[in-house]
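Re: that backbone. C-alpha coordinates:
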Protein backbone atom coordinates (compact mmCIF):
# COMPACT_ATOMS: atom_id res chain seq x y z
CA UNK A 1 0.00 0.00 0.00
CA UNK A 2 1.23 3.54 -0.64
CA UNK A 3 2.71 5.15 2.46
CA UNK A 4 1.96 8.81 3.21
CA UNK A 5 5.32 10.58 3.21
CA UNK A 6 5.67 13.90 5.03
CA UNK A 7 9.04 15.58 4.57
CA UNK A 8 10.14 18.88 6.08
CA UNK A 9 13.11 21.20 6.00
CA UNK A 10 14.15 23.28 8.96
CA UNK A 11 12.79 26.81 8.91
CA UNK A 12 15.69 29.29 8.82
CA UNK A 13 15.92 32.64 10.56
CA UNK A 14 15.22 35.50 8.19
CA UNK A 15 17.73 38.01 9.53
CA UNK A 16 19.38 37.85 6.09
CA UNK A 17 18.97 36.44 2.61
CA UNK A 18 19.25 32.70 1.83
CA UNK A 19 22.66 31.20 1.09
CA UNK A 20 23.86 27.98 -0.51
CA UNK A 21 23.54 26.04 2.75
CA UNK A 22 19.80 26.69 2.74
CA UNK A 23 19.67 25.56 -0.89
CA UNK A 24 21.37 22.27 0.03
CA UNK A 25 18.65 21.23 2.47
CA UNK A 26 15.85 22.37 0.18
CA UNK A 27 17.26 20.38 -2.75
CA UNK A 28 17.79 17.28 -0.62
CA UNK A 29 14.20 17.38 0.61
CA UNK A 30 13.00 17.99 -2.92
CA UNK A 31 14.78 14.86 -4.18
CA UNK A 32 13.17 12.74 -1.47
CA UNK A 33 9.73 14.18 -2.21
CA UNK A 34 10.05 13.67 -5.98
CA UNK A 35 11.39 10.15 -5.56
CA UNK A 36 8.49 9.16 -3.31
CA UNK A 37 5.94 10.67 -5.64
CA UNK A 38 7.53 8.83 -8.54
CA UNK A 39 7.09 5.59 -6.60
CA UNK A 40 3.40 6.23 -6.07
CA UNK A 41 3.39 7.40 -2.45
CA UNK A 42 1.29 10.41 -1.44
CA UNK A 43 3.72 13.16 -0.44
CA UNK A 44 3.52 16.42 1.47
CA UNK A 45 6.65 18.60 1.40
CA UNK A 46 6.86 21.51 3.84
CA UNK A 47 9.33 24.37 4.03
CA UNK A 48 9.08 27.79 5.63
CA UNK A 49 10.75 30.52 7.67
CA UNK A 50 11.36 31.14 11.36
CA UNK A 51 10.15 34.71 11.78
CA UNK A 52 9.89 35.00 15.58
CA UNK A 53 13.57 35.24 16.44
CA UNK A 54 15.47 37.88 18.40
CA UNK A 55 18.05 37.73 15.60
CA UNK A 56 15.41 39.06 13.24
CA UNK A 57 14.57 41.90 15.63
CA UNK A 58 18.21 42.91 15.95
CA UNK A 59 18.73 42.75 12.18
CA UNK A 60 15.72 45.01 11.65
CA UNK A 61 17.03 47.49 14.21
CA UNK A 62 20.42 47.52 12.48
CA UNK A 63 18.71 48.45 9.20
CA UNK A 64 16.35 50.92 10.82
CA UNK A 65 13.28 48.93 9.74
CA UNK A 66 10.21 47.68 11.58
CA UNK A 67 10.73 44.01 12.41
CA UNK A 68 7.74 42.82 10.40
CA UNK A 69 8.92 44.71 7.32
CA UNK A 70 12.37 43.11 7.42
CA UNK A 71 10.90 39.68 8.12
CA UNK A 72 8.44 39.97 5.23
CA UNK A 73 11.16 41.06 2.82
CA UNK A 74 13.61 38.32 3.70
CA UNK A 75 11.02 35.57 4.05
CA UNK A 76 9.90 36.33 0.50
CA UNK A 77 13.46 35.67 -0.68
CA UNK A 78 13.40 32.23 0.93
CA UNK A 79 10.01 31.33 -0.50
CA UNK A 80 11.10 32.50 -3.95
CA UNK A 81 13.83 29.81 -4.01
CA UNK A 82 11.12 27.51 -5.34
CA UNK A 83 11.64 28.55 -8.97
CA UNK A 84 15.45 28.78 -9.32
CA UNK A 85 15.99 25.52 -7.42
CA UNK A 86 12.97 23.73 -8.97
CA UNK A 87 11.75 22.93 -5.45
CA UNK A 88 8.35 21.23 -5.37
CA UNK A 89 7.28 22.04 -1.81
CA UNK A 90 3.52 21.83 -1.27
CA UNK A 91 3.37 24.23 1.64
CA UNK A 92 5.42 27.11 2.98
CA UNK A 93 4.77 28.27 6.53
CA UNK A 94 5.75 31.64 7.97
CA UNK A 95 5.59 31.68 11.74
CA UNK A 96 4.73 35.38 12.03
CA UNK A 97 2.07 35.44 9.32
CA UNK A 98 0.46 32.01 8.97
CA UNK A 99 -2.91 31.85 10.71
CA UNK A 100 -2.39 28.15 11.49
CA UNK A 101 0.77 28.66 13.50
CA UNK A 102 0.02 30.59 16.68
CA UNK A 103 -3.09 28.56 17.65
CA UNK A 104 -1.12 25.37 17.09
CA UNK A 105 1.81 26.52 19.23
CA UNK A 106 -0.61 27.53 21.98
CA UNK A 107 -2.30 24.13 21.84
CA UNK A 108 1.06 22.37 22.15
CA UNK A 109 1.98 24.59 25.13
CA UNK A 110 -1.29 23.88 26.91
CA UNK A 111 -0.97 20.14 26.29
CA UNK A 112 2.48 20.08 27.91
CA UNK A 113 1.23 22.25 30.75
CA UNK A 114 -1.65 19.83 31.32
CA UNK A 115 0.89 17.01 31.56
CA UNK A 116 2.64 18.89 34.39
CA UNK A 117 5.77 19.51 32.33
CA UNK A 118 5.91 23.31 32.45
CA UNK A 119 6.94 25.33 35.50
CA UNK A 120 8.37 28.79 36.18
CA UNK A 121 11.61 29.59 37.99
CA UNK A 122 14.54 31.99 38.08
CA UNK A 123 17.32 31.24 35.61
CA UNK A 124 20.76 32.61 34.99
CA UNK A 125 22.96 31.55 32.09
CA UNK A 126 25.05 32.46 29.06
CA UNK A 127 22.95 33.15 25.98
CA UNK A 128 24.08 33.15 22.34
CA UNK A 129 21.72 35.22 20.22
CA UNK A 130 23.10 33.59 17.04
CA UNK A 131 22.09 30.14 18.26
CA UNK A 132 19.10 31.39 20.27
CA UNK A 133 20.12 29.10 23.12
CA UNK A 134 21.82 29.02 26.51
CA UNK A 135 25.26 27.48 26.95
CA UNK A 136 27.11 26.15 29.96
CA UNK A 137 30.76 27.10 30.44
CA UNK A 138 31.76 23.54 29.52
CA UNK A 139 29.99 23.80 26.17
CA UNK A 140 31.91 26.91 25.12
CA UNK A 141 35.18 27.00 23.21
CA UNK A 142 37.54 29.25 25.19
CA UNK A 143 34.50 31.20 26.36
CA UNK A 144 33.04 31.53 22.87
CA UNK A 145 30.11 29.92 21.08
CA UNK A 146 31.53 26.99 19.07
CA UNK A 147 29.10 27.76 16.25
CA UNK A 148 29.47 31.53 15.90
CA UNK A 149 32.74 32.36 17.69
CA UNK A 150 31.04 35.05 19.75
CA UNK A 151 30.93 35.42 23.52
CA UNK A 152 27.46 34.64 24.88
CA UNK A 153 25.87 37.34 26.99
CA UNK A 154 24.92 36.69 30.65
CA UNK A 155 21.17 36.61 31.19
CA UNK A 156 19.21 36.38 34.43
CA UNK A 157 15.41 36.34 34.51
CA UNK A 158 12.26 34.43 35.41
CA UNK A 159 11.42 31.87 32.70
CA UNK A 160 9.14 28.96 32.08
CA UNK A 161 10.92 25.59 31.99
CA UNK A 162 10.09 22.26 30.39
CA UNK A 163 10.70 19.00 32.30
CA UNK A 164 13.03 17.44 29.74
CA UNK A 165 14.66 15.31 32.46
CA UNK A 166 11.41 13.38 32.85
CA UNK A 167 11.83 11.89 29.36
CA UNK A 168 15.48 10.87 29.47
CA UNK A 169 15.02 7.09 29.61
CA UNK A 170 12.16 7.08 27.14
CA UNK A 171 14.10 9.14 24.60
CA UNK A 172 17.18 6.97 24.95
CA UNK A 173 15.24 3.77 24.23
CA UNK A 174 13.40 5.35 21.29
CA UNK A 175 16.67 6.34 19.62
CA UNK A 176 18.56 3.19 20.55
CA UNK A 177 15.80 0.93 19.24
CA UNK A 178 15.51 2.82 15.96
CA UNK A 179 11.86 3.72 16.54
CA UNK A 180 13.15 7.28 16.26
CA UNK A 181 15.55 6.75 13.36
CA UNK A 182 18.51 9.11 13.05
CA UNK A 183 20.78 9.01 10.01
CA UNK A 184 23.71 8.86 9.60
CA UNK A 185 24.83 6.62 12.48
CA UNK A 186 27.43 9.08 13.72
CA UNK A 187 24.63 11.56 14.49
CA UNK A 188 22.55 8.86 16.16
CA UNK A 189 25.47 8.03 18.41
CA UNK A 190 25.94 11.72 19.16
CA UNK A 191 22.33 11.95 20.35
CA UNK A 192 22.63 8.80 22.45
CA UNK A 193 25.74 10.19 24.09
CA UNK A 194 24.04 13.48 24.85
CA UNK A 195 21.03 11.75 26.42
CA UNK A 196 23.17 9.33 28.41
CA UNK A 197 25.13 12.23 29.92
CA UNK A 198 21.91 13.40 31.57
CA UNK A 199 19.15 15.70 30.41
CA UNK A 200 18.37 18.91 32.23
CA UNK A 201 15.15 20.86 32.06
CA UNK A 202 15.41 23.74 29.62
CA UNK A 203 14.04 27.26 29.44
CA UNK A 204 11.07 27.63 27.09
CA UNK A 205 10.20 31.30 27.45
CA UNK A 206 11.79 34.74 27.41
CA UNK A 207 10.69 37.99 28.99
CA UNK A 208 8.75 40.35 26.76
CA UNK A 209 11.43 42.93 27.43
CA UNK A 210 14.31 40.77 26.21
CA UNK A 211 12.26 39.52 23.24
CA UNK A 212 11.58 43.16 22.32
CA UNK A 213 7.87 42.33 22.31
CA UNK A 214 8.35 40.03 19.28
CA UNK A 215 6.96 36.51 19.29
CA UNK A 216 4.03 34.51 20.63
CA UNK A 217 2.99 35.34 24.23
CA UNK A 218 2.90 32.49 26.73
CA UNK A 219 -0.75 31.44 27.22
CA UNK A 220 -1.92 32.91 30.50
CA UNK A 221 1.34 34.82 31.08
CA UNK A 222 1.54 37.78 28.67
CA UNK A 223 4.77 39.07 30.27
CA UNK A 224 6.59 36.09 28.73
CA UNK A 225 7.16 35.12 25.08
CA UNK A 226 7.40 31.49 23.99
CA UNK A 227 11.03 30.53 23.31
CA UNK A 228 11.74 30.75 19.60
CA UNK A 229 12.83 27.11 19.35
CA UNK A 230 9.59 25.86 20.94
CA UNK A 231 7.72 28.14 18.58
CA UNK A 232 9.73 27.06 15.51
CA UNK A 233 9.71 23.31 16.15
CA UNK A 234 5.95 23.42 16.37
CA UNK A 235 5.73 24.41 12.70
CA UNK A 236 6.00 20.77 11.65
CA UNK A 237 2.53 20.12 13.10
CA UNK A 238 0.97 23.59 13.08
CA UNK A 239 1.23 23.57 9.26
CA UNK A 240 -1.00 20.48 9.37
CA UNK A 241 -3.75 22.31 11.30
CA UNK A 242 -2.71 20.76 14.60
CA UNK A 243 -4.67 23.50 16.39
CA UNK A 244 -7.90 21.85 15.21
CA UNK A 245 -6.48 18.35 14.75
CA UNK A 246 -7.75 18.71 11.20
CA UNK A 247 -7.73 16.27 8.31
CA UNK A 248 -4.16 17.13 7.28
CA UNK A 249 -2.90 16.42 10.78
CA UNK A 250 -4.74 13.11 10.94
CA UNK A 251 -3.38 12.07 7.55
CA UNK A 252 0.26 13.18 7.67
CA UNK A 253 1.11 13.02 11.39
CA UNK A 254 -0.34 9.67 12.28
CA UNK A 255 0.71 6.06 12.67
CA UNK A 256 1.33 4.52 9.27
CA UNK A 257 2.88 7.66 7.75
CA UNK A 258 6.56 8.48 7.33
CA UNK A 259 7.34 11.75 9.13
CA UNK A 260 10.77 12.87 8.00
CA UNK A 261 12.75 15.89 9.20
CA UNK A 262 15.81 17.12 7.29
CA UNK A 263 18.22 19.30 9.25
CA UNK A 264 21.81 20.39 9.68
CA UNK A 265 24.00 18.94 12.41
CA UNK A 266 24.02 22.23 14.33
CA UNK A 267 20.35 21.89 15.30
CA UNK A 268 20.34 18.15 15.96
CA UNK A 269 19.79 18.44 19.71
CA UNK A 270 16.65 20.51 19.26
CA UNK A 271 15.12 18.08 16.77
CA UNK A 272 16.25 14.74 18.19
CA UNK A 273 15.86 15.49 21.91
CA UNK A 274 13.78 18.59 22.69
CA UNK A 275 11.15 18.16 19.97
CA UNK A 276 10.42 14.45 20.61
CA UNK A 277 10.18 15.17 24.35
CA UNK A 278 7.66 17.95 23.69
CA UNK A 279 5.57 15.56 21.59
CA UNK A 280 5.76 12.82 24.21
CA UNK A 281 4.55 15.29 26.79
CA UNK A 282 1.67 16.38 24.58
CA UNK A 283 0.74 12.76 23.82
CA UNK A 284 1.36 13.11 20.08
CA UNK A 285 3.21 10.84 17.60
CA UNK A 286 6.92 11.43 17.01
CA UNK A 287 8.76 11.91 13.74
CA UNK A 288 9.87 8.59 12.27
CA UNK A 289 13.11 9.78 10.65
CA UNK A 290 15.62 12.52 11.42
CA UNK A 291 18.06 12.93 8.52
CA UNK A 292 21.10 15.06 9.24
CA UNK A 293 23.50 16.75 6.83
CA UNK A 294 26.82 18.42 7.55
CA UNK A 295 27.76 21.95 6.57
CA UNK A 296 28.95 23.47 3.35
CA UNK A 297 32.10 25.54 3.56
CA UNK A 298 33.73 28.16 1.36
CA UNK A 299 37.52 28.07 1.36
CA UNK A 300 37.33 25.80 4.40
CA UNK A 301 35.09 28.14 6.40
CA UNK A 302 31.44 27.55 7.32
CA UNK A 303 29.09 29.55 5.13
CA UNK A 304 28.16 32.68 7.06
CA UNK A 305 26.83 36.10 6.20
CA UNK A 306 28.82 37.78 8.96
CA UNK A 307 32.08 36.11 7.89
CA UNK A 308 31.61 37.09 4.26
CA UNK A 309 31.47 33.49 3.07
CA UNK A 310 27.81 33.39 2.02
CA UNK A 311 27.11 32.23 -1.53
CA UNK A 312 23.84 33.31 -3.14
CA UNK A 313 22.19 30.27 -4.79
CA UNK A 314 20.06 32.48 -7.04
CA UNK A 315 23.17 34.14 -8.45
CA UNK A 316 24.65 30.70 -9.14
CA UNK A 317 21.52 29.57 -10.94
CA UNK A 318 21.47 32.76 -13.00
CA UNK A 319 25.05 32.07 -14.09
CA UNK A 320 25.04 28.30 -14.55
CA UNK A 321 21.45 27.04 -14.49
CA UNK A 322 19.26 25.15 -12.05
CA UNK A 323 20.40 21.61 -12.70
CA UNK A 324 24.16 22.27 -12.55
CA UNK A 325 23.67 23.78 -9.08
CA UNK A 326 21.42 20.91 -7.97
CA UNK A 327 23.88 18.35 -9.35
CA UNK A 328 26.84 19.84 -7.50
CA UNK A 329 24.92 19.85 -4.22
CA UNK A 330 23.86 16.23 -4.68
CA UNK A 331 27.13 14.79 -5.98
CA UNK A 332 29.73 16.68 -3.99
CA UNK A 333 28.30 16.73 -0.47
CA UNK A 334 29.22 13.57 1.45
CA UNK A 335 26.93 11.80 3.86
CA UNK A 336 29.26 12.71 6.72
CA UNK A 337 31.80 15.57 6.80
CA UNK A 338 31.74 18.95 5.16
CA UNK A 339 32.00 19.88 1.48
CA UNK A 340 33.93 22.91 0.30
CA UNK A 341 32.29 24.92 -2.46
CA UNK A 342 34.10 26.78 -5.21
CA UNK A 343 32.80 28.01 -8.55
CA UNK A 344 35.64 26.09 -10.22
CA UNK A 345 34.36 22.82 -8.76
CA UNK A 346 30.85 23.59 -9.92
CA UNK A 347 32.10 24.30 -13.45
CA UNK A 348 34.24 21.16 -13.49
CA UNK A 349 31.36 18.97 -12.35
CA UNK A 350 29.02 20.55 -14.90
CA UNK A 351 31.38 20.11 -17.83
CA UNK A 352 32.52 16.62 -16.93
CA UNK A 353 29.24 15.03 -15.87
CA UNK A 354 26.49 16.97 -17.54
CA UNK A 355 28.06 18.25 -20.77
CA UNK A 356 30.57 15.50 -21.59
CA UNK A 357 29.17 12.30 -20.08
CA UNK A 358 25.40 12.76 -20.15
CA UNK A 359 24.89 15.45 -22.78
CA UNK A 360 27.15 13.84 -25.36
CA UNK A 361 25.59 10.43 -24.75
CA UNK A 362 22.03 11.58 -25.39
CA UNK A 363 23.07 13.70 -28.36
CA UNK A 364 25.02 10.83 -29.94
CA UNK A 365 22.21 8.32 -29.50
CA UNK A 366 19.46 10.57 -30.86
CA UNK A 367 21.73 11.71 -33.70
CA UNK A 368 22.50 8.12 -34.69
CA UNK A 369 18.80 7.21 -34.74
CA UNK A 370 18.26 10.14 -37.10
CA UNK A 371 21.30 9.38 -39.25
CA UNK A 372 20.80 5.63 -39.59
CA UNK A 373 17.02 5.21 -39.16
CA UNK A 374 15.67 8.58 -40.31
CA UNK A 375 14.67 9.41 -36.74
CA UNK A 376 12.46 6.33 -36.34
CA UNK A 377 13.17 4.34 -33.13
CA UNK A 378 14.55 0.92 -34.07
CA UNK A 379 12.27 -2.08 -33.82
CA UNK A 380 14.50 -5.11 -33.28
CA UNK A 381 13.25 -8.52 -34.32
CA UNK A 382 11.67 -10.55 -31.51
CA UNK A 383 14.35 -12.27 -29.48
CA UNK A 384 17.15 -10.20 -30.98
CA UNK A 385 19.73 -9.21 -28.38
CA UNK A 386 22.31 -6.47 -28.67
CA UNK A 387 25.82 -7.88 -28.67
CA UNK A 388 27.96 -7.21 -25.59
CA UNK A 389 25.16 -5.23 -23.89
CA UNK A 390 24.91 -7.32 -20.72
CA UNK A 391 26.67 -4.80 -18.50
CA UNK A 392 24.53 -1.95 -19.76
CA UNK A 393 21.23 -3.80 -19.48
CA UNK A 394 22.17 -5.00 -15.99
CA UNK A 395 22.98 -1.42 -14.90
CA UNK A 396 19.57 -0.28 -16.17
CA UNK A 397 17.80 -3.10 -14.35
CA UNK A 398 19.57 -2.51 -11.03
CA UNK A 399 19.50 1.29 -10.89
CA UNK A 400 15.97 1.76 -9.45
CA UNK A 401 16.68 -0.41 -6.39
CA UNK A 402 20.14 1.08 -5.92
CA UNK A 403 18.78 4.60 -5.96
CA UNK A 404 15.94 3.71 -3.59
CA UNK A 405 18.33 2.09 -1.09
CA UNK A 406 20.72 5.03 -1.18
CA UNK A 407 17.99 7.61 -0.68
CA UNK A 408 16.49 5.62 2.17
CA UNK A 409 19.95 5.78 3.80
CA UNK A 410 20.03 9.56 3.16
CA UNK A 411 23.05 9.14 0.87
CA UNK A 412 22.68 11.38 -2.15
CA UNK A 413 26.23 10.79 -3.35
CA UNK A 414 25.64 7.05 -3.63
CA UNK A 415 22.26 7.62 -5.26
CA UNK A 416 23.66 9.87 -7.98
CA UNK A 417 26.59 7.51 -8.49
CA UNK A 418 24.11 4.67 -9.04
CA UNK A 419 22.42 6.65 -11.81
CA UNK A 420 25.80 7.44 -13.32
CA UNK A 421 26.61 3.74 -13.74
CA UNK A 422 24.06 3.78 -16.55
CA UNK A 423 25.71 6.81 -18.14
CA UNK A 424 29.15 5.23 -17.87
CA UNK A 425 28.02 1.86 -19.20
CA UNK A 426 26.14 3.44 -22.10
CA UNK A 427 29.16 5.49 -23.12
CA UNK A 428 31.37 2.42 -22.80
CA UNK A 429 28.92 0.47 -24.97
CA UNK A 430 28.97 3.12 -27.70
CA UNK A 431 32.76 3.08 -27.77
CA UNK A 432 32.89 -0.71 -27.78
CA UNK A 433 30.15 -1.52 -30.31
CA UNK A 434 30.67 1.53 -32.53
CA UNK A 435 27.26 1.75 -34.18
CA UNK A 436 28.75 3.75 -37.05
CA UNK A 437 30.75 0.67 -38.02
CA UNK A 438 27.58 -1.45 -37.87
CA UNK A 439 25.93 1.11 -40.15
CA UNK A 440 28.87 0.90 -42.56
CA UNK A 441 28.65 -2.89 -42.49
CA UNK A 442 24.91 -2.65 -43.14
CA UNK A 443 25.56 -0.43 -46.14
CA UNK A 444 28.28 -2.71 -47.45
CA UNK A 445 26.06 -5.78 -47.05
CA UNK A 446 23.17 -4.04 -48.78
CA UNK A 447 25.39 -3.01 -51.67
CA UNK A 448 26.78 -6.52 -51.91
CA UNK A 449 23.32 -8.02 -51.80
CA UNK A 450 22.06 -5.66 -54.50
CA UNK A 451 24.98 -6.56 -56.73
CA UNK A 452 24.36 -10.27 -56.38
CA UNK A 453 20.56 -10.20 -56.38
CA UNK A 454 20.10 -8.10 -59.51
CA UNK A 455 16.47 -7.04 -59.69
CA UNK A 456 15.46 -9.23 -56.70
CA UNK A 457 14.24 -6.86 -53.94
CA UNK A 458 14.99 -9.40 -51.19
CA UNK A 459 17.90 -8.53 -48.99
CA UNK A 460 20.86 -10.82 -48.61
CA UNK A 461 21.39 -12.67 -45.34
CA UNK A 462 24.36 -10.44 -44.58
CA UNK A 463 22.25 -7.33 -45.13
CA UNK A 464 19.59 -8.56 -42.69
CA UNK A 465 22.16 -9.51 -40.06
CA UNK A 466 23.91 -6.15 -40.22
CA UNK A 467 20.59 -4.31 -39.97
CA UNK A 468 19.49 -6.43 -37.01
CA UNK A 469 22.75 -5.75 -35.18
CA UNK A 470 22.43 -2.01 -35.69
CA UNK A 471 18.76 -2.02 -34.68
CA UNK A 472 19.57 -3.92 -31.49
CA UNK A 473 22.45 -1.59 -30.60
CA UNK A 474 20.44 1.58 -31.19
CA UNK A 475 17.47 0.13 -29.30
CA UNK A 476 19.47 -0.69 -26.15
CA UNK A 477 21.07 2.74 -26.22
CA UNK A 478 17.76 4.54 -26.66
CA UNK A 479 16.19 2.53 -23.86
CA UNK A 480 19.15 3.39 -21.65
CA UNK A 481 18.55 7.10 -22.28
CA UNK A 482 14.88 6.60 -21.43
CA UNK A 483 15.94 4.90 -18.19
CA UNK A 484 18.14 7.89 -17.41
CA UNK A 485 15.23 10.27 -18.01
CA UNK A 486 13.18 8.32 -15.48
CA UNK A 487 15.90 7.91 -12.86
CA UNK A 488 17.17 11.48 -13.08
CA UNK A 489 13.73 12.99 -12.55
CA UNK A 490 14.07 13.39 -8.75
CA UNK A 491 17.59 14.81 -9.06
CA UNK A 492 17.51 16.91 -12.24
CA UNK A 493 13.85 17.39 -13.17
CA UNK A 494 14.54 19.84 -15.99
CA UNK A 495 17.21 17.68 -17.58
CA UNK A 496 15.11 14.54 -17.17
CA UNK A 497 12.23 16.21 -19.00
CA UNK A 498 14.50 17.28 -21.87
CA UNK A 499 15.94 13.78 -22.22
CA UNK A 500 12.46 12.26 -22.18
CA UNK A 501 11.33 14.72 -24.86
CA UNK A 502 14.28 13.89 -27.13
CA UNK A 503 13.87 10.14 -26.68
CA UNK A 504 10.10 9.94 -27.12
CA UNK A 505 8.79 9.68 -30.68
CA UNK A 506 6.14 12.00 -32.07
CA UNK A 507 4.34 10.80 -35.21
CA UNK A 508 6.78 7.89 -35.28
CA UNK A 509 9.99 9.96 -35.17
CA UNK A 510 12.26 11.34 -32.50
CA UNK A 511 12.64 15.12 -32.31
CA UNK A 512 15.82 16.49 -33.82
CA UNK A 513 18.78 16.23 -31.43
CA UNK A 514 19.54 19.30 -29.33
CA UNK A 515 22.49 19.63 -26.92
CA UNK A 516 21.49 19.23 -23.28
CA UNK A 517 24.31 21.28 -21.77
CA UNK A 518 26.73 23.69 -23.36
CA UNK A 519 30.26 23.61 -22.08
CA UNK A 520 30.87 26.25 -19.43
CA UNK A 521 33.80 28.37 -20.61
CA UNK A 522 36.82 29.08 -18.50
CA UNK A 523 37.65 25.50 -17.50
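Recovered sequence:
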Amino acid sequence: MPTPFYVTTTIPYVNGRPHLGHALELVQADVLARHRRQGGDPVRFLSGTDDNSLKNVLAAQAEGLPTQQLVDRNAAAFESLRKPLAACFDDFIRTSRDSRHRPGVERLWRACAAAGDLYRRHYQGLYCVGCERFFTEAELDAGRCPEHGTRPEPVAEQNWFFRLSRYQDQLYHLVQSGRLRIEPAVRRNEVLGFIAAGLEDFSVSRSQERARGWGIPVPGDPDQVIYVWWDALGNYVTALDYANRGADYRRWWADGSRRVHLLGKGVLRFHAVYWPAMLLSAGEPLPTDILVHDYLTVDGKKISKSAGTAVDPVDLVDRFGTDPVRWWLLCEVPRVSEADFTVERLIARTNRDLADDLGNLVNRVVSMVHRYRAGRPPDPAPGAAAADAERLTTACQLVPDRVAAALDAFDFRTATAAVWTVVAEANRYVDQVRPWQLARAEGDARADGDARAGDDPARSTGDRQASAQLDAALDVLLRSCQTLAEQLQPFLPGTAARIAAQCTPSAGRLPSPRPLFPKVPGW
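The mean pLDDT is 93. The CA atoms of residues 202 and 518 lie 54 Å apart.
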